[in-house]
Design a protein that fits this description.
Layout: E1 12-23, H1 29-34, E2 36-46, H2 49-54, H3 63-74, H4 82-96, E3 102-110, E4 120-128
Antiparallel strand pairs: 1-2, 2-3, 3-4
Length: about 130
Amino acid sequence: MPPSFSASPVPATVRLVNAVFYAHHGVMEEEHKVGGRFEVDVAMDLDIRQAATDDDLSKTVDYERVYAIVRDRVTGTPSYLIESLAYSIAEVVMQHFPMLLSVEVTVRKPNPPVGGPCDRAEVVYRLDAAP
């Protein structure tokens, strides 16, 4: 008799990892003039069972659209804080994909101007869907 499987109540995670952009964010005037590299990860929790069963993109998150949201925000109007970037990306992604249970956005700024050696500054922001 073949084994039976039950679907896990735990959601799956769809990720975009290390989307890289050149942009002009930062507190220092020089950062707004010269710009710098920014790296973004987006992790989205959702139930993928129906999308996977039906092989139907409309029932899951379209990561090409997520990438476009990230790109437009990072390369758009400059912010002083990477916290602002992470927050606004999470809000827009959640609005566009109501099937999401949560979204977690990480924004990294390599070699931040901190007065000494530092690989990166990063912020991680998690937004959960309303119950």
